[in-house]
Amino acid sequence: MSTPHRPADQPADRPADHPVVQTDRGPVRGTGSDTGLRFLGIPYAKAPVGALRFAAPEPAEPWTEPLDATAYGPTAQRRAFAEVTIIPEPTVPGAGILNLNVFTPAADPSAGLPVLVWIHGGGYVAGSSASPWYDGAAFNRDGVVLVSIGYRLGIEGFLHLEDAPDNRGVLDWIAALGWVRDNIAAFGGDPARVTVAGQSAGGGAVQTLLATPAAKGLFRAAISVSGAVMQPQDAAVGRAVAERFTARTGLPATAQALRDRSDEELLDFQGALSAPGPDGPAPMLMLAPFADGELVPEPVMDALTSGDAGGEIPLMLGFTEHEFNALPFPDAPEEALLGLLASLGLDPSASAGFLAAHPSLTTPQRMGQAITDATFRAPALAIAESRAARLRPTWLYEFTWTSQAPAFAGAAFHCLDLPFAFDLLSAEGATDATGANPPQALADAVHSAWVRFIHSLDPGADWPRYTAADRATRVWDAPPRTDPDHLAPVRAVWLREH
Q1: Distance between CA atoms of 40 and 131, rounded to whole angstroms?
Q2: Annotated catalytic residue within 323, 385, 386, 403
Q3: Is this structure's pTM higher than 0.85?
Q4: Helix count and strand count (H, E) for the chain
Q5: What is the CB-side half-sphere exposure of residue 495 using CA atoms within 13 A?
Q6: Which residues contact 324 (CB under 8 A, 6 or more apart)?
Q7: 323 has catalytic annotation
Q8: pLDDT tens, 468-494?
Q9: Which domains does the chain have, with CATH numbers?
Q10: d(Cα 204, Cα 194) in Å, to the nearest integer?
Q11: Marked catalytic residue, from 5, 120, 322, 414
């Protein structure tokens, strides 16, 4: 097995642009940046290979010489995901995929800066913490330490196996947060001031961590950006996916049967699992966290809307207005749209309300909007409603500024908000999403709200809490505004509230 990093061959007394920080496993050497320091590809657990491929993560072996933390480490993603997301997400080969990156203003143990731990998206089957969209430069400029983490994906991370722990990807998130607790002070961060955040599958990860008792105490606040979880999500669903895997591949869903298979073979099995077939269409997010009854005790949406999950942890959550509208849905008769709405749980009255709420959209756009509402908008709104009823600190937003890029013109689509939140409008690939000359003032507003929330657990006076009285919602447009009950049509259609 190859080691995840080479020991750096330079002496330990390098200049300040190649600082060395001591972790609980050994020293790491990073590099300087315009706004601070960066330490890339630090292993937080052993490489998940051999007997560890489907096991719970184990702490990395200690080392003595400084490890070279100047380049991103291996990623769990093995193929590009460009057909689904516009985010540039590099694939880095190697075994040591359980690594993280630290961006810090200064590696001063006395600094006590707040920390943002970022979990990337990618439908739980792809994505990369090495994306230039997740660079921590702007957060460092504003006094925040940013940590971005890698974790096991797809079959390795989430397929139910009879002889392995369930939700291995969730165990990876918890292990990474444990590393932050134990080590972030050496990088200038305060382990008692950690905010966990993520987008899409990463936003679903945040929701899952709120509903996972083993993560309690590892973070004090949460930001769920376009968060999505498997629905339904009980243990029977996890077992059904495993049975589908066996039916499709002819292989038992066991670690013993899969442990020595190549990455390419696992990806082929994954493709077979998700392909259409006689046993029905593939549900969204099959390989994703599910309620195993132990690590994740109950379905996340149930835990967050009717249970006690999350407690008093401050939560900022929201979505873009048109998450999946830009996907190439085929033109179809209205009967097909009505069938889709019925499959998403809308009765004829609610379906009529949905159609009335979107009179100017084409049928394909309405299909995209229906998926957007059912997957992102309605669940987040339900969480906000439930938390507001229990007076829990919650802030809800909708990103409505629409892209000016030719491929996405007129849509506030999935991922569009990230360069604004990270204040990275000039990052690689950002203008492909936004179009030329995106509004810097909007990036200033979104990013500043995040920074205030991470520092003080409140995004600012212009964005009040979501309460049952006025349902204040921050609308990220140019210019931004706060509207009372901005999402009333979504409540009326999807939450059956009039």
Answers
A1: 12
A2: 323
A3: yes
A4: 16, 14
A5: 20
A6: 368, 369, 371, 372, 375, 413, 414
A7: yes
A8: 999 999 999 999 999 999 999 999 999
A9: 45-62+76-229+292-494 (3.40.50.1820)
A10: 18
A11: 414
